[in-house]
Amino acid sequence: MRTRVTDMLGIEFPIFAFSHCRDVVAAVSRAGGMGVLGALYFSPEELETELKWIDDHVDGRPYGVDVVMPASYAGADLDVDSPEDLVQRLQGMIPEGHRRFVEDLLAGHGVPPLSGDGDAGKVLLGWTDATARPQVEVALRHPIALLANALGPPPADVVEAAHAKGVKVAALASTPRHATKQVEVGVDIVVAQGTEAGGHTGEISTMVLVPQVVDAVDVPVLAAGGIGDGRQMAAGLALGAEGVWTGSIWLAVEEADTPVLARERILRATSRDTVRSRSWTGKPARLLRNEWTDAWESSESPGTLPMPLQFMLVSEALRRIGRSDAAELATFPAGQIIGAVKRVRATRDVMFDLVEQYVEAKERLDRITGA
Amino acid sequence: MRTRVTDMLGIEFPIFAFSHCRDVVAAVSRAGGMGVLGALYFSPEELETELKWIDDHVDGRPYGVDVVMPASYAGADLDVDSPEDLVQRLQGMIPEGHRRFVEDLLAGHGVPPLSGDGDAGKVLLGWTDATARPQVEVALRHPIALLANALGPPPADVVEAAHAKGVKVAALASTPRHATKQVEVGVDIVVAQGTEAGGHTGEISTMVLVPQVVDAVDVPVLAAGGIGDGRQMAAGLALGAEGVWTGSIWLAVEEADTPVLARERILRATSRDTVRSRSWTGKPARLLRNEWTDAWESSESPGTLPMPLQFMLVSEALRRIGRSDAAELATFPAGQIIGAVKRVRATRDVMFDLVEQYVEAKERLDRITGA
């Protein structure tokens, strides 16, 4: 298969796989696609370890790293000395009533406190300029082929630094206007992400959004949101995209380190079991719908806080839930396509099927058209 | 182009166009597609007039009629003598606080009362078994090729009556489970309708839903929701559909009798200007987002009533708004694809472009695949 994207990045198939798991990233790249490691949960030191592992296991194939540098967030204008200083200042902005709501919710489900292993550094994650930049620095010391950014156009100097190393830059867009702004700062590939996608997402569906983004920019576009099999890959390319960006389908592959309970929940879920919610980070993200997301929509909810305050508010709670028996509160980012994920498979087999089904879908169009 | 659907119905292109306007229906069918008249707003007598007009203007090409027989609605179990009796019984079920909320909303926007031309028969529309059946009887007296039903599987005897006349039956589904139930009652074509569609709609996007429905049933499937140009048509067919069902793109064609203000609003809208709301009928429907839909989501809102009570509550208000200057309250069913409708065009030209762009999209896939 050949598009501007396969030429640009030297890959065999225009299939991009976002995953927080290095094993999945390396397996996708080895199978001819482009694995992209989500750096969000890693400190700079941890990220260094992960990327070193990928370098050793990717057989020289290209791979990418995804960071989150939101264009806007609470505290972006604070004059701070360090990430630790920023965390302290931001903690002071969280209302007591919100902390009480979270505590009451957990108490109502019998979730015990942690046994004293709080990690203040992790409550902010890579959701600010101050925390994401060190991740970018680590990433650019490795032979990555692609640096992707969610939540808006990356800062112009980050784009420049990537280009200076020969690294291409991608950014996620959920409106044609986002896409135009991203190309203005030098982004090489726009990921047009429909509302059905997991994680941070907009309102417009993939079917409607992709052609609008393709018409708005000159750079290649990837279709994201709802891409799970080769028919959806063919659909994405028919819409004008030059590749597809996938995420949720890798949550339940053999190589993924997804917790067992979460994996079982994915295999059982239908496509109606997700919801766009601000309850994770303060910006709308599609999550598994459950009693956690419902609670934040209920009449008792104090409302969510802006990014990054909401995650600072809930990060410890989410860790406590993860270690408890309260599976009914354990949510995570997931797209509507999880309804099509029915068994655990090897990453290589999922890649193979994507390509084979794509070819079948194209041959079907040939027959319909009488070509 | 050839699919099971073009063979079944004797049409040249597997393009279905839902419209409340007879001129659009006839123009689509004459151009080789399948126009489908939405019967909802018509009394049996009015529907007779519309279908007679189509018979005279469709040059013998096949066309269809769409009715609404919801599987469930308030009052479905009432033992009534007549539609008029049903209306009276249902009126008694509308709380006074809801009537006051609507009156206050209109007063706040300076909307005057009607000048005494209330039409009790129209407050119920074709949203019940009692009101839709006479529409079906009228439709089956005309040479229609297709009877479509929204909001659930049609009653088995209606399917039988249609089949006895050689008329095929289609039904809209927003989950694979809906689709299976429809096929069980004898439906010939399932319209898999994604959340981005205008009017009554579910939560799952077209990209995710269509393959799931295709895998769930043996009958041909049409892709609906977000279909506006030939790229989206190619995408729908790549997903496994054997045709596409369109709606919102016909609101602003030359032949449509859409009010001038609504047409201008459509041409100006982006794909973010719609919202799924119960404020029109009591069941979730995608509407133009404005101060009307916002008001029903506000903290002052008493909440919406179940179908058909909500429309009974708001129908006069919507007519009053339509005749007033309060354009900020005038909503109507519209899908996300209205963001791609930028000028008024002839129905025939839209049909021609759909087919031409479809062929271009397929040729693009040929080049990508190296075929």
From TrEMBL, chains A, B:
SUPFAM superfamilies, sorted: Inosine monophosphate dehydrogenase (IMPDH)
A single MF term (Gene Ontology): dioxygenase activity
Keyword Oxidoreductase annotated: yes
Keywords attached to this entry: Dioxygenase, Flavoprotein, FMN, Oxidoreductase
Pfam families reported in the protein's UniProt record: NMO
InterPro entries on file: Aldolase_TIM (IPR013785), NMO (IPR004136)
Stated name of the protein: NAD(P)H-dependent flavin oxidoreductase YrpB (Nitropropane dioxygenase family)
Organism: Streptosporangium becharense
Organism lineage string: Bacteria, Bacillati, Actinomycetota, Actinomycetes, Streptosporangiales
